[in-house]
Structures are given as structure tokens and as C-alpha cells.
Amino acid sequence: MKVKINEDWLATILGFVLLILALINVVTPAWMKF
Amino acid sequence: MTTSVVKQEKTSGSTVVQFLVGLVIVVALAFLSRWLKNQVYGIKDLFGLGIPGKVLEYPLWAALLGLIANPILKALKLHSFAKPGFRTELFLKIGLVLLGAGISFKVIVTAAGGAIIQGIIMVAAVYFFSWWLGGKFGLPDTLRAVMSTAISICGVSAAIAAAGSVMAKKEEITYVTALVIITALPLMVIAPLLAGAMNMPEPVAGAWFGGNVDTTAAVVGAGTIYGETAQKIASIVKSTQNVLIGLVAFLLALYFTTVVEGKKEKPSASIIWQRFPKFVLGFIVTSLIFTFGWINKDQGSAIAGMKDWAFCLAFVCMGLELEVAGFKKMGWSPVIVYLIVTVFNTLLALGISWLIFGWLFPAAL
Fold first, then answer.
1. Preferred mutation among B19, B41, B303, B315 to probe A, highest tally of A CBs within 10 A
2. Cβ contact (<8 Å) for A18 and B282?
3. Which of B53, B66, B73, B246 has its CA 20 to 30 A from that of B84?
4. Number of domains in chain A
5. What's the CA gap between B236 and B231, in Å, rounded?
């Protein structure tokens, strides 16, 4: 079965994955300093 | 295994490699943008022209590096190979979802009230002015529809949505996409300078960028250059306008099938949901998480950093994705129409944003 993910949904999912990584302190401010 | 399956696997395999190569190029250019920004940020007077280094924010460097790398990659015959990794919309939307995690839901509700009124006025006025002017210049209906939607709503993604509804030609989409990026990139820099010269408060400036600059990436870029509050309001106003894509796509499909093509069957209203920008839902949910107090200061800083990286990748891609090859085929009439409508859009948005965000709904941030 071929599953096609819309780019809008993909961006939303990836955004949440990154948010969760920050919430469980896997990503720290020092790493992401811009 | 059949030959076609083998071929398909090879194709998808090579697309992954192409995506990764493109991504490496984009990330390298984003690092370079950050380095350049940090080099000039502390300088008080650049080249003795009285320009402080901090006005040269990262969107400017990122878009500029993308524009410089674009012809170099084309000359090296690497551009089309690496193109699957140049994903302006993807990186931008990830950044917008993360941006929500720094905005109180109360601010979204306050700003969205004004943004809805501004969006409806701007979209309707700019769309019909562009449609009328395009007719006067003798542009084909399909090009007028794609162009009017791009200018009035949100540039590239609106152009693609409209093209699907009116069965526009591929070269018309490419052409309008190039026009959007060519006008949005200078506006991303000029609009914050003009707003500064007019001493515009940040919420008003943000609303102006959101209503005036055509593509969402450049709106966020202009807001980032002007200030943090301007970035937030610009994103809320533009996202509200983005929500109207579905409705316009449906109305266009209805008009073209029934009036232009004279068919009896009507398009399904499900197109409104299909074209709805789902990242807006993510933006609202992350804002609620922030509003409930579930994000502490350190986590907030990490999220803000990731948001800046995602936006920086989007700005690099914007420069990399510019294609001007289709211009010669279409002639200059659409360019003239586009530029006149852009001036109209800029002036109208200036008046409306002052009225709504400076007077009716001054967003309390």
C-alpha cells in the first residue's frame, strides 16, 4: 500500500516531533542557539 | 520482481539521495548565513553609511546566499539533481508550528480578529483589481486566476492551489511563482526599512507585511528583520489569509466549470478542507501548549532556536528555488500587471493595517 503524506501534515508532524524533543530536554538551548 | 518495480525502487532511492544532497547544501548555506549575521551584528556603523549591523538579520543573508548559490549550482549541473532538498514550504511550515509555541493564545485570538477583517478586505479588493487589470491587458483567464490568487492570498502555495482549480498550464504556474519570489525578496528588505522610516509600531508593521508581501516566507522574513512582535503578528495575519486558500480554490473551480467551461456538474466543497493549510492547526495547538504553561524558559529557548533554524533553511531555499527561464515565453504584460497590483496591494495594506491594528484592534503584546 502506498501512503502519500501531504507536505502540510508532514511539516506539522515534524514541528511536533521537534517540540516534544525540546519538552523532554533532548534538545537544549545551547545546541540550537542561532 | 518486475522491471517496473525495480525501476520504481531505483527512482525512489535516487530521490532520497537527491533530497539528502539538497538538504546538505541548504544546511551548509544556513550555517554560513548564521556566521555572516554574527560577524556583522555587533558593528554599529557599516561601511561608514550609518547602517547598524543588527539590521542585516539572518533572512537577508540566507536569501542572498540562496540567490548566489542558485546560478552556481546550475552552472555545475547540480541544481536540478539537488532540487528535491530545496523545500521552502516544508521548512517554513515547521518554523510556523514552532513559532506558535512562543505566542499566547490570547494574542492569536486578539490579532486574528483584526486579521480576519483585514484578510477579507485585502483578498477581495486585490483579487478583483488584479483580475480586472489582467483583463484590460488581455491576459488569459487561467493566468489571471493564478496571478490574482497569488497576489491576494499567499504567493506560491496559493498559485498552485488556484492552478489546480482552473486547470492552468504548468508554465503559467512557473511564471507566477518566479514573479512572486522576484517581488517578494526585495519587499522583504524594503518593507521593514519603510516601516522604520514611518516609525510604525511593531503590530501595525507586522500586519502590513502580512497583508502586503506576497509569499509567507518573505512575510516572516520581513517581520523577523523588523522585530519579534512584528514577526508574530505578521505570521498570524498571513496564516489567517492562508486559511482563505480553500474557499478561493473552491469558488474558482465553481466559476471555471460552470461559467467558463459551461458544464453542469459542480465541484465538491471538500476542496475547502483539502486546501486548508493544516500547519495552522499545529500553530494553534502549540500556542495552547505554551498558554497552559507547559513550556519552561529553557525549553522555550530551545524551541525558539529550532524555529530560527527552520526559517533560515526556508529563506535559503527561497533563493535557491528562483527560476526565471519562463519569463521570455510569456512577455512583459503579466509583469506590468503584477507590479501595478503589487503597488496597489502595498498601499491598501498600509491603510488597512493602520486602521485595524493601530486603531480598531491594537494587539496587546
1. B303
2. no
3. B246
4. 1
5. 9
- Which of A10, A16, A22 faces B302 most closely, judged by CB atoms? A22
Q: Mutating which of B295, B299, B308, B313 best tests the A interface, going by the most A Cβ atoms within 10 A? A: B299
pLDDT tens-place string over residues B114-164: 899 999 999 999 999 999 999 999 999 999 999 999 999 878 878 888 888
Model pLDDT for residues B10-57, shown as the tens digit of each residue: 566 678 999 999 999 999 999 999 999 989 888 877 777 666 777 788
Q: What is the pTM of this model?
A: 0.85
Q: Do B89 and A6 touch (CB under 8 A)?
A: no
What is the ipTM, given to two decimal places? 0.91
* Residue B119 in grid coordinates: 484578510
Q: Are the beta carbons of A32 and B312 separated by less than 8 Å?
A: no
Provide the grid cell at B65.
Answer: 546566499
pLDDT in tens, A1-34: 455 668 889 999 999 999 999 999 998 887 777 7
In whole angstroms, give the CA distance from residue B207 to residue B233: 6
> Which residues span the domain enclosing A16?
1-34
DSSP β-bridge partners for residue B51: B46
